[in-house]
Amino acid sequence: MNAQLVESIYKMIQSLSDEERSLLEEKLFANLSYPSQEEIDRLSAATDVYDFLNMASRLDITQIFKKY
Question: Under 8 Å CB-to-CB from 49, ≥6 apart: which residues?
Answer without folding.
Answer: 43
